């Protein structure tokens, strides 16, 4: 759950830069948004792997029965 909360915090931190880029045409803010989106992609992938691993561990004992 910690990683999920980190994703939410990252999105919230990018909101101001997204506003500056889309509404005020600030290109530097666009660069920060792109970097943040790449970080978000990496965090999401890490969460996906963690969820899959946890799910597989939980299912493994059930298969042995």
Integer average pLDDT? 92
Helix content: over 70%
Strand content: under 5%
By secondary-structure content and strand pairing, the structural class works out as: mainly alpha
SS elements, strand count: 0
State the helix count: 2
- Tell me the Rg in angstroms: 17 Å
Biggest β-sheet strands, sense, barrel: none
Poorly predicted segments: none
- Shape descriptor: rod-shaped
Distance between the termini: 30 Å
Order of helices and strands: HH
Could you explain the architecture of this structure?
- Helix 1 (2-24) packs antiparallel against helix 2 (27-64).
- This protein has helices spanning 2-24, 27-64.
- The protein contains two helices and no strands.
- It is mainly α and 65 residues long.
- The mean pLDDT is 92.
- InterPro entries: Hc1.
- It comes from Pedobacter flavus.
- It holds the Pfam family Hc1.
- This is Histone H1.
Helix/strand layout:
Layout: H1 2-24, H2 27-64
Helix pairs in contact: 1-2
Defining key terms:
single chain; 65 residues; mainly alpha; rod-shaped; Hc1
Write a compact overview of the structure shown.
With 65 residues, this protein is mainly alpha-helical. 94% of the residues lie in helices and 0% in strands.
